[in-house]
Amino acid sequence: MDTAKPKQNSTNTKTFNKPTSQKREGSDNRKSRPSFERPKPEFDQKMVSIRRVTRVVAGGRRMTFAVAIAIGDKKGSVGLGTGKGGDTAIAITKALRQAKKNMFKIKTTKEMSIAHEVSAKFSSSQLTIRPNYGKGLVSGSTVRDMLILAGIKNVTAKLHSGSKNKLNNARVAYKALYMLKEKSQIKTIPFVVPEAVAEQITEEVK
After folding, report:
1. Helices in 41-140 by DSSP H: which ranges?
2. CB–CB of 173/127 below 8 Å?
3. Which of these, 15, 75, 81, 167, is most buried using a 10 Å CB contact count?
4. Whole-number average pLDDT of the chain
5. Sign of CA pseudo-dihedral 204, 126, 74, 78
6. What's the CA gap between 130 and 114, in Å, rounded?
7. What is the pLDDT confidence band of residue 141, given thresholds at 50, 70 and 90?
8. Which of the two residues, 11 and 181, has the higher pLDDT score?
9. What percent of the chain is helix, strand and coil (3-state, nearest 5)?
10. Range name among 68-82, 149-163, 180-194 with the lowest pLDDT average
11. What is the pTM of this model?
12. How far apart are the C-alpha atoms of 177 and 201, rounded to whole Å?
């Protein structure tokens, strides 16, 4: 006698297979992108001024850019340079090259301050820098940028003129700091100091 087997419910016998994670084709051959790191500049730099100069010639107007840049290592060295070019990149490159040529070392104290008070005048800008131990850097305008790049601390810088010309203020700061230059480095006077002032500075240092 044949015994009939009980029918199993088809809904209970279904099995669901989990989807297996498949790797994308070519994922193993994919290479990581190379990381490009910008080289660290040799000196810290600050843009003092940038302006567009228009010159009228026979063929029309010719536009160029004039740039002034201050550089320093924050260890007593500072420089200032200007450059002109038809493009801002060219003008900046020229200004940096000239600033490196005009760089000099300042004679500072152990606390990175100055030993005595100095005063300077360039065009309509007049500046006095005096040490103030423990009060920090008290200054403004582009004079502060020049002092920061030179790494000088605990000084008070006062502009006695109402000149708002950033380039002249930077030049008078450069001239005042140049009076603190080490005697062994005094050979030539940079471009920012007139000849009459250069002779006066050289006589005072001797």
Report:
1. 88-101
2. yes
3. 81
4. 79
5. negative
6. 8
7. confident
8. 181
9. 25, 30, 45
10. 180-194
11. 0.68
12. 11
Q: For the residues 43-53, what does the mean pLDDT come to?
A: 90
Place of tokens 């730099």: 45
Taken as a whole, the chain contains a residue count of: 206
Q: Between 12 and 167, whose confidence is greater? A: 167
Q: Return phi, psi of residue 48, to 5°.
A: -80, -50
User: How far is the first Cα of the chain from the last one, in angstroms, to the nearest whole number?
Assistant: 133
Measured at the CA of 162, the angle between CA 181 and CA 55, to 5 degrees, comes to: 85
Nearest to 69 by CA among 151, 167, 157: 167
Single out the residue of 191, 155, 145 nearest to residue 45, CA to CA. Answer: 145
pLDDT for res 65: 94
Residue 181 — pLDDT band, cuts 50, 70, 90? confident
Q: CA angle 153-158-164, nearest 5°?
A: 115
157: which 2 tokens?
A: 């810088």
Longest distance between any two alpha carbons in the chain, whole Å = 135
Q: Which residues on neighbouring strands pair with residue 70, listed in sequence order?
A: 46, 80
For residue 177, what are its two tokens? 């700091």
pLDDT at 133 over 70: yes
